[in-house]
Design goal:
This protein has 280 residues and is mainly alpha-helical. It has helices at residues 3-34, 37-40, 53-80, 111-147, 208-221, 225-243, 253-273, 275-279, and strands spanning 97-102, 105-109, 165-170, 186-190. It is built from 8 helices and 4 strands; from the N terminus they run αααββαββαααα.
Length: 280
């Protein structure tokens, strides 16, 4: 073949095919790594339990339920003196409820099978909910990782009342993906008992460094789930008290800030007890 034609075919067809093939190979590896093929043989398409401890617990319950269902199936066969793997003709129907009779056999159930079936469906739905949340989280993290110029790390979390907020080379997740600009990483330290975070408000106040610090602290606050839930309630109550002030709309700027500080004083003890509110 002429070299010119060969190069033309490679450029138009082969290079694209190789590119797509490489992407499919990565997708194949992803599927092989994440999908439970043993469950897929039974038409149950789920993630492997290796990714989450909660999935392992649910999987153990599902396996136990399946074993109980098979045991019940075999028990009915033994009591009737029939082989459950062959086409059966039921003469004694007191043990089960006939659901359907077909040329290939009889579909039946028992009271225990109904209970086990309900339990299996409930745990299966729970499994689907957990794996769906994992998939969404993984997609969001993957999207951020792909966009980032450098890798992300998992923060080291301390016990309640012992931790400090120490950020080394903190970046701004939005600015760093822009092509026409750069953001110099910053270091932040809030040592318990030594430093305090003062929130300064007003027109044009707060820069990119402050914004970057706020983003990281907010992300950290989402790790202790119980503290976050409690903290959200505190914040809602705090905002509700401010909003319920009758003359709030007629106040000037300084009066509103004074009122916010006054209301904050009532919640100071709750804020100090809650790490989510305290750091935020």
């Amino acid at each position: 073949m002429d070299d010119t034609l060969r190069d033309l075919i490679e450029e138009i067809f082969l290079n694209k095919l190789k590119e797509h093939n490489d992407q499919l190979e990565k997708f194949k590896e992803l599927v092989e790594t994440t999908v439970d093929f043993e469950a897929a043989e039974h038409h149950h398409y789920v993630l492997k339990v290796d990714f989450n401890d909660e999935l392992k617990v649910i999987k153990e319950k599902l396996d136990k339920t399946i074993r109980e269902m098979n045991k019940e199936h075999q028990m009915v066969g033994r009591k009737l003196g029939l082989d459950t793997k062959k086409k059966l003709h039921f003469e004694n129907k007191k043990l089960m409820d006939i659901l359907a009779t077909q040329r290939t056999g009889v579909f039946f159930t028992t009271r225990k099978l109904k209970e086990l079936s309900s339990e299996f469906l409930s745990e299966s739905e729970h499994y689907d909910d957990v794996q769906s949340s994992l998939v969404k989280e993984d997609i969001n993290i993957s999207d951020v990782s792909v966009r980032a110029s450098t890798s992300y790390i998992r923060p080291k979390m301390m016990d309640k009342g012992e931790g400090h907020v120490i950020l080394k080379n903190a970046r701004h997740p939005c600015l760093e993906i822009q092509d026409d600009g750069s953001f110099i990483p910053i270091d932040d330290e809030l040592i318990r008992g030594q430093n305090e975070l003062q929130i300064i408000t007003g027109p044009n106040m707060g820069g990119i460094c402050d914004e970057s610090f706020g983003i990281h602290v907010t992300e950290l606050a989402n790790f202790p789930e119980i503290a976050v839930k409690e903290g959200v309630i505190i914040i809602k109550q705090f905002l509700w008290d401010i909003a319920q002030t009758p003359e709030i709309e007629s106040m000037n700027y300084n009066s509103i800030l004074d009122h916010i500080q006054e209301v904050k004083g009532k919640y100071q003890e709750k804020i100090e007890r809650n790490p989510w509110c305290r750091e935020l």
